[in-house]
User: Fold this.
Amino acid sequence: MWGFVITRSMRRPAVAVALSTGVLIVLALPVLNIHTKLLSFTDLPKSLAIVKTYDTIQASFPGTEDPAHVVVKAKDVSTPRFARAYADFKKRALATGVIHQPIRVSVNKAKTVARVDFPLAGKGQDATAMHALKVLRTQVIPPVLATLPPGTEEAVTGDTAVTQDFNQTMKHRAPIVFAFVLGFAFLLLLVTFRSIVIPIKAIVLNLLSVAAAYGVLVWIFQDGHLQGVLSFHSNGAVVTWLPLFLFTVLFGLSMDYHVFILSRVKELVDQGMPTDEAVERGIRTTASTVTSAAAVMIAVFAIFASLRTLDIKQLGVGLAVAVFIDATLIRGVLLPAAMKLLGEWNWYLPSWLEWMPRLTVEPKLDEEVPEAPPIPAA
Assistant:
């Protein structure tokens, strides 16, 4: 099967590259609207007994699902000065129109920490709740905090605040992770294959694969498609930690396939075989191994996709889809077609990089292999 696909891809490489890249871009488009949040108690399966009990309590004693908790720490948070601050908190919060009753104040036994609960408008982690949290942090807390004794500490927590802060942390740290992984992979491939084209092409192909997996993940879980097939209820988001986790895992798996295939191709090229023929033969000889490994991983990840917890289900679907795309469309169509188009440029190395050491991923075929020592007689 792969022989048929690879032959057709390399026969019209420009068409194969254009079509496969177009498919991957279409699959990746939903990622432009990705929304991430941490899972809360309400995202658990509704059939669980504990969730049914929670829903019954909420119906009997209505309140708020995800209040914001403002924690105040000082030597003594029960003084009249702090009591006036709590009253001011309440007055300012209710005046905003996005924070509601009941606003409660709890103080620990040591009277060093107070917690003020602010029910936010919205549904916990939607745009309305995020706006309410921003109003609390920028309009309600600072004026009141300025009236408290020096050294008073303040922090905001709760599901809404945790999601907001986690998202912001991920946005600031993700570029560092991406730069490290991509840079390190580039250097390794550059030294291993002594080509500046190979690492650039590998990174582009792997990023297309990961982006397509992200897009499918958003289309299914955020947009709410295939809920009946996969047996889940969409909460309108992808779990916050998943995109970065998927990137690191999938990039490692994709790079493993890539090095495995290209090492065979490079070995044939070093023996004097033309690049076009080496690409077709190298991919043909490794296709069954790559397909078998991918099938095993997809089967394992599909088990995660069958579980009831939403974040693990998202993890399983994301990994399974990404491995499937990478082992089929990327390795079977886009890689051979791209290498056919580039021809001898695949092995281009600028003259100013000729100083690099020569590394080999496999021993040379003409190397003498030492004989095994004789087995001693019994």
In short: The chain has eleven helices and six strands. Residues 161 and 204 are 36 Å apart (CA to CA). The longest strand covers residues 68-73.
